Amino acid sequence: MKWRLQEGRGEAVYQIGVEDNGLLVGLAEEEMRASLKTLHRMAEKVGADITVLREREVDYDSDMPRKITEVLVRKVPDNQQFLDLRVAVLGNVDSGKSTLLGVLTQGELDNGRGRARLNLFRHLHEIQSGRTSSISFEILGFNSKGEVVNYSDSRTAEEICESSSKMITFIDLAGHHKYLHTTIFGLTSYCPDCALLLVSANTGIAGTTREHLGLALALKVPFFVVVSKVDLCAKTTVERTVRQLERVLKQPGCHKVPMLVISEDDAVTAAQQFAQSPNVTPIFTLSSVSGESLDLLKVFLNILPPLTNSKEQEELMQQLTEFQVDEIYTVPEVGTVVGGTLSSGICREGDQLVVGPTDDGCFLELRVCSIQRNRSACRVLRAGQAATLALGDFDRALLRKGMVMVSPEMNPTICSVFEAEIVLLFHATTFRRGFQVTVHVGNVRQTAVVEKIHAKDKLRTGEKAVVRFRFLKHPEYLKVGAKLLFREGVTKGIGHVTDVQAIAAGEAQANVGF
C-alpha cells in the first residue's frame, strides 16, 4: 500500500472482489466486511483514510449475492505534500466560467445575476462588465475522506490548505476574443494538468469555443467538457447542445471519445478512464443556479488522479533549478514578489539564483527570501509546483514576465534567433519572409519576424516547414523541443523549437531587431 500511495502521489484505488487476472468474482457480505476492515487497518498504519467509491453486485456461480467494491485510499498529507492538480477553465464569453468557479469554491449557489463570480474578479472594470480580462486562481480542496473543503465555513486559504489532502487549483481564463493573448499565456505558461471547457447549453458551440478547443488540442492539454446553464433551457435544447459537442469531438481533427456523465457511477468511471486515456472526454451537464449535477463534477474532481506519475517528477527534481516568472507584484513590507511554476529542480528558502535575460541579455543574482504555495507558507518547492517567491528589496523594474530564475551552475543560454518546425493552421493569403507574429513559448510572449522559410518561398494554410524567427525586442531563454504557438490577427500556427542560436550576454543588444 505504501508503494502504491507513493506511485499515485498520495492516493490509490483498490478493487475488492476482483482476481489478479481481472475476473470479477465478488465477495459475500461477510467476506467484504472483513476485507474492508483489513484495508482500514492497513490504511491506518500508513496514515491514510479510505472512502468507498461504489459497490456493484456481480453474477457468479453462487446462490449468495456477491459484490465488488472500489475503495479510494488517500494519505493524510505530511510535510505540505498535498496532491495538487491545475485545471485551466476555457470557454466562450458569457458561458459561466467565473460563476461555476465561484459556486465550487465558495460553496454557495449563484442567484442567476452573477453574484457567485464577484469574489473572483481582480479589477473594477471586470465587476462592472462581468467579463474576465485577467488570469485569476481559485482553490478547491478535498480532505482524505473525499469531502469538499472550500470557503463555505468562513475558512481562509491557509485553513483550506491545512485540512486538504488534495487541492484543485482552477486557472480562470478570459473568454472574450479581445483577451485571447491572455488565455494563450495562461495555457502555455501555467502548465495546467488538464482543462475544463465550458459550453453554455442555450448558445451551444459559439464564439471562441472552437478556438479554445483548438488551443487545448494544439498544446496537447487533456480536457473535459461542462455544459452549463441547463436550468435556462428545455431538455431538448440541452440534448441538442450535447449532440453538437459529440459531433465536434468525434471529428477527424479531435479524435475524442465523448462520455456523457449522468450518474455518480459514470463520474467514477470517467475519472479513471480520463487519466488512462487522453482520448476520453467526459461531458457534464449542470447548473450553477439550481445546483443540478454539480455533485457529479465534484466526485469527478475528487477521484481524478494526477496525470503525471511520481517517477517523472523524481527525474525533474534531480535537475538544476529552473523557475518561470509569470507574474510580478510589489507587496507592502515584503518587497518584490514573483509568481510562476518551478519547471525543474528544487527551490528552498534562502537559495541564491540568477534571473534573466534582461534587455541586454544579462542574468542578475538574487536570493529567495520566502515561498508561498496556495497562499500558505512553504519551505521547499518541488518540480511541477506553482508558487510565489519573495525576493526582498530586488528592483521590480528589472523584472518582466517571460524571465526565468535558474541555478547559477546552469550557465543558461539565451537567443534572439531560433528555428522551429511549424504547421500553419490558418492564414488568409501566403505566409512569407518578413511577416511579423506574436510567438508564445512557455512563459515567453514576444513579437518575432520570419527571417527564412527553409526549402520554400511561402506557406499556405495546412502546410509544414522549418522557419527561422528573430525576436524584435530582446533575447529570450528558450529550450529545444519546447512547444510553440504563434498568431497575428486571424493567422495561427503551432510547432516546436528545433534549434536555438545561442548568444553571449554582451552580443545580445546588437543581435535583437534589425
From TrEMBL:
The keyword GTP-binding is assigned to this record: yes
Coiled coil: none
Annotated Tr-type G domain residues: 82-310
InterPro entries: EF-Tu_GTPase (IPR050055), GTPBP1-like (IPR035531), P-loop_NTPase (IPR027417), T_Tr_GTP-bd_dom (IPR000795), Transl_B-barrel_sf (IPR009000), Transl_elong_EF1A/Init_IF2_C (IPR009001)
Lineage: superkingdom: Eukaryota
Gene Ontology molecular functions: GTP binding; GTPase activity; translation elongation factor activity
Keyword terms, alphabetized: GTP-binding, Nucleotide-binding
Family: Belongs to the TRAFAC class translation factor GTPase superfamily. Classic translation factor GTPase family. EF-Tu/EF-1A subfamily.
Protein name according to UniProt: GTP-binding protein 2
High-level lineage: Eukaryota, Metazoa, Chordata, Craniata, Vertebrata
